[in-house]
Amino acid sequence: MLKFDPNIPVYLQIMEFLKKKIASGKLQPGEKLPSVREMAQMFGVNPNTVQRVIQELERENLIFTERGIGNFVTKNEKVISKMREEMAAKMIEDFISSMNEIGFSNGEIMQLIKKKIEEER
């Protein structure tokens, strides 16, 4: 179960969780999602909250619904790729902004990233 941040609407946190699952490939294109009821139990929330998540993800074309069958991850790889790029851009912007706030220049940030990548090899 997710640990929810009380400062962010729960439905947005569930959306972000599912988007990360799609972006990482843990939820594959065309894969069936658990039912609204099952997800409500999984996340410990009201089914109406999950229904809102489903509606928002459908609006973003990340999932589609087949009446009477269920909800599925989009099969459109371009939609998934675009979402991944948008998520990455946001993470990078947030990271750079946070690093700038504590006094690092963009050049210093690049050096730190390169050093960390080298350590990971």
Defining traits:
Tscrpt_reg_HTH_GntR; transcription; WH_DNA-bd_sf; Arc Repressor Mutant, subunit A; transcription regulation; 5 helices; elongated; 121 residues; GntR family transcriptional regulator; 2 domains
CATH architecture of the largest domain: Orthogonal Bundle
CATH superfamily of the largest domain: Winged helix-like DNA-binding domain superfamily/Winged helix DNA-binding domain
Terminal Cα span: 33 Å
* Structural domains: how many: 2
Main sheet properties = 2 strands, antiparallel
Estimated structural class: mainly alpha
Could you say which overall geometry the principal axes of the C-alpha atoms support?
A: elongated
Number of strands: 2
Overall residue-averaged pLDDT value: 96
CATH class of the largest domain: Mainly Alpha
As a percent range, the share of helical residues equals: 55-70%
Description:
The protein has two domains: about 70 residues, Winged helix-like DNA-binding domain superfamily/Winged helix DNA-binding domain (Arc Repressor Mutant, subunit A), CATH 1.10.10.10; about 45 residues. Helix content is about 65%, strand content about 5%. It has five helices and two strands. A hairpin with a 3-residue loop joins strand 1 and strand 2. Helix 1 packs across helix 4 and helix 2 packs across helix 3. The two termini are about 35 Å apart. The model has no long low-confidence stretch (mean pLDDT about 95).
